[in-house]
């Protein structure tokens, strides 16, 4: 029974690294894209018996490496494959550690935007028919206008095929694509809020969208950001991601008279754990996947359901940043699933304790 999906990109990454001293390393054909990383973020909280509740409509190009597909299939999820004669979308990621470990990163999308948009975007009609009755959560990573079109297209398909979802139309977990977080896109961003359950830009993207000066993690002014989005919080829940400083959760207000509630959820790996963080690629996407799983697992009667969801998201992100590419799934001697040799539940307990003690003051 399909319950979770991502309609975000499935690409393949080539990674080029310059180490201290000038030594070169390359990792070719690595599974990438916002879609797979979000799927990993959700899958971390499932198991072999429940993995089929995770679904993905995979557009597969003619030269997609088999091992990338094997990684996807190893998650045990439901996959609807769409094969294409066109080359698979590729990206080149370069990391320069030659001066110090504060890397300079370069990114280049090697597939033309026209070709990607024409053949490799996941639209509502690409989802398997049998998923429509049971899907509860959809992750989207796209612009405001396309978010609206996707939500409307999904509802149109339900009407066209006379499908009545068991729990109603799925909740949309919207991660605005970075290139749409500019002031000229603000109107579309605002309109899209009425179509989603939560919106989660990172602090840099939100600052740019609002026309504020760019900020780093160390100088981020979350009080200013929350003040700026205050009028929008009657439309949906906001979760502002801030890297090693965690995230800010601002639950939707029922009415204009309701007070704005702002919560800080810490990251699992903080600045003190810099050595644990190898590559942040996909961390935000994995956070979104964990957010879906956490929202589903949280007590529905709890008034702080989004806080639980954010804790799950932070743990999901913690596994993704530990290596280049996705985390490694294994099992212990009792058959319990581990990720990079560790337990998601163990990390969740640690993070809950840290959150309860309120060790980090971000606001």
Relevant terms:
363 residues; alpha/beta; UDP-N-acetylmuramoyl-L-alanine:D-glutamate ligase; 9-stranded mixed β-sheet; 4-stranded mixed β-sheet; 10 helices; Carbohydrate kinase PfkB domain-containing protein; PfkB_dom
Instruction: State the total count of DSSP E strands.
Output: 15
At the third CATH level, what is the topology name?
UDP-N-acetylmuramoyl-L-alanine:D-glutamate ligase
**Topology as a string of helices (H) and strands (E):** EEEHEHEEEHEHEHEHHEEEHHEEH
Count up the domains: 1
Q: What is the annotated CATH architecture? A: 3-Layer(aba) Sandwich
Molecular structure report:
- Residues 187-325 form the Carbohydrate kinase PfkB domain.
- The protein has 363 residues and is of the alpha/beta class.
- It has a single domain (4-10, 36-80, 133-357), classed as 3-Layer(aba) Sandwich (UDP-N-acetylmuramoyl-L-alanine:D-glutamate ligase).
- Helix content is 30%, strand content 20%.
- The protein has helices at 34-43, 66-73, 113-119, 144-160, 186-192, 203-209, 222-229, 283-297, 305-320, 344-357, and strands spanning 4-6, 11-18, 24-32, 54-60, 78-83, 90-96, 104-109, 137-140, 171-174, 198-199, 237-241, 247-250, 263-265, 329-331, 337-339.
- The strands form 3 sheets. It has a 9-stranded mixed sheet, covered by helices on one side.
- Strand 6 (90-96) and strand 7 (104-109) form a beta hairpin.
- It is globular and about 60 Å long.
